[in-house]
Amino acid sequence: MSSVGTGHPTHYQGPPLARQQRPKGDADGDCPDAERWIESALRARIGEAHLRLRLGIEAEREQQVFGRGLNFVHLENWYSVHGLIRVGLRASLLYRRGRRNARCIQVRHNELRLRRLPSALDGLTILHISDLHLDMAPDFPELLGRRVAELDYDLCALTGDFRYRTFGPWEPCVDGLRRLHRYLRGPVYGILGNHDSIRMVPAMEAIGVRMLMNQSDALSHRGATFYLGGVDDPHYYQADNLEGAMAGIPEGAPSLLLAHSPEIYRRAAHCGFWAMLCGHTHAGQIRLPGGIPLILNANCPRRLCAGSWEYAGMLGYTSAGAGSSVVDVRLNCPPEVTLHTLRLG
Question: pLDDT tens digits for 81-127?
Fold first, then answer.
């Protein structure tokens, strides 16, 4: 398979964080010098306004249960309910089965048929992994890594929610990402989800994951150029900026958007993106027999909350996610990674 090369990044401020010297000291967040370095690196990377916005909302909202964000109730932050769900699953003798299911990751295949696609891009394949929740269980990063190690693809897109909880230490999930990254090939891109802290970004880029923070990159494949845009979390933090992600993408150029949630589908389509990859919903994670989800946690039409869809000429795909949230259980809704192949169609 042909390789994908990164062109000159567009709408990018400051040098790559991996090249900036990090101060020595205690663990991230415990050393004042390390904390100042993180904020300084982020300021150079994304600008003062975005940094203030994200850090302010993190401090104000990260444990919010009611209100804020696009949904009124944020079940992922309601930890007393998590315990009740576990008790109910154990009482119904479904808990162990659900945990086994959560580790049976399926590989799905999806074709993105684009009428205007340059012929050189026909066949380009993207490995899409969403909602990883890498600190969910100690064995999960290697389990996920082994599942994708032998797959054939040109680049990898990680569409957010690296952390299991929505607050607290983020170092364990970055360590999980480091372990997973050993199994990945080619350019690896990522965006933040509603579980993630912006303080994770410098460490993630040092690992080798290029984080798109309301930005885009130009990539080349067999002599043709296409553009990959990515936005910060639109669901809880509402820190997405589609105009920033679209800036620098020539009008009519092939473009694909990474967004954590499908909830911005309408704006993304009207901005002119050809396709959009997202996650967040877990496709329900716990479904009734017949595939009926109990909750999708997204303020958008249900048809956009799992699998492939289309809106106003923009193709979309919402991943069921590789990991699990709230409880480490899957019922009638297997976890997945997806291989998207661009096709001239």
Answer: 555 665 565 666 577 898 899 999 999 999 999 999 999 999 999 99
Tell whether 328 is covered by a domain: yes
* Structural domain that includes position 252: 27-344
State how many domains the chain has.
1
Identify whether 223 is part of a domain.
yes
**Residue 324, burial from CB neighbour count under 10 angstroms (0-12, 13-18, 19+):** buried
| CATH value at residue 153 | 3.60.21.10
Read off the pLDDT of each residue in 282-304 and give the average, rounded to a whole number.
Answer: 92
Nearest Cα to 263, choosing from 247, 249, 276? 276
CB 225 within 8 A of CB 255: no
Please give the C-alpha separations between residue 76 and each of 73, 147, 300, 334, in angstroms, as whole numbers. Answer: 9, 26, 18, 19
Residue 17 lies in a domain: no
Q: Is residue 232 within 8 Å of 49, Cβ to Cβ? A: no
Q: What is the mean pLDDT of residues 200-214?
A: 96
For residue 186, count other CB atoms closer than 10 A to its CB. Answer: 16
Classify residue 15: in a domain, yes or no: no
Take residue 194 and report the two structure tokens written for it: 């509603």
Residue 244 contacts by C-beta under 8 Å, 6 or more apart in sequence?
Answer: 11, 214, 215, 231
The one-letter amino acid at 296:
L
pTM of the entire predicted model = 0.87
